[in-house]
Task: inverse folding
């Protein structure tokens, strides 16, 4: 049986950072980590990603979002559960992936005017698409990519908004991905 990854790409909702009901979903650890983030735009993206992850994980696990045992320091994880989670944000968009019993990584990047891939050329990185794929693969395996791509990982590109590149990754190839079109923050 093929494993399934649920993925979302949704816009940043700037009002979430000022909405008490959304902020109540965050754990004390989430709130502390977000408070340490410098620019307001970065804090808003971090809040949106964490709230969305908690909402969707709560739906999957059958519990209120504020009770989801999400650890968001380092690579995000769900304590003592089979659910796995990854998120990324860039510019005005957030990418979120949730899987069951399958490590997952996701990345989204806004296309810059110019990119210099010389520092990672030894890894075969020649484009933003390659870089996003590598970021997703590294998140899926918690593997630093100093000398090589993480082994045994499959990367699948996701349809992203114009001006953005996105990909999801997981170990092996016996998995599929379903890209959801609604924002988890619409709940």
Result:
């Amino acid at each position: 049986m093929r494993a399934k990854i649920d993925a979302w790409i949704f816009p940043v909702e700037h009002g979430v950072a000022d909405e008490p009901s959304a902020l109540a979903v965050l754990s004390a650890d989430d709130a502390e980590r977000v408070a340490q983030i410098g620019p307001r735009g970065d804090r808003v993206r971090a809040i949106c990603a964490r709230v969305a992850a908690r909402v969707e994980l709560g739906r999957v696990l059958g519990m209120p979002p504020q009770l989801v045992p999400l650890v968001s320091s380092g690579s995000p994880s769900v304590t003592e559960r089979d659910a796995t989670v990854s998120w990324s944000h860039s510019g005005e968009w957030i990418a979120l992936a949730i899987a069951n019993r399958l490590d997952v990584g996701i990345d989204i990047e806004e296309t810059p005017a110019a990119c210099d891939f010389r520092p990672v050329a030894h890894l075969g990185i020649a484009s933003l698409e390659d870089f996003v794929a590598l970021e997703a693969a590294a998140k899926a395996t918690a593997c630093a990519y100093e000398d090589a791509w993480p082994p045994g990982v499959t990367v699948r590109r996701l349809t992203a908004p114009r001006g953005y590149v996105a990909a999801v990754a997981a170990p092996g190839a016996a998995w599929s991905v379903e890209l959801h079109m609604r924002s988890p923050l619409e709940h």
User: Anything to note?
Assistant: Residues 16 and 22 are 6 Å apart (CA to CA).
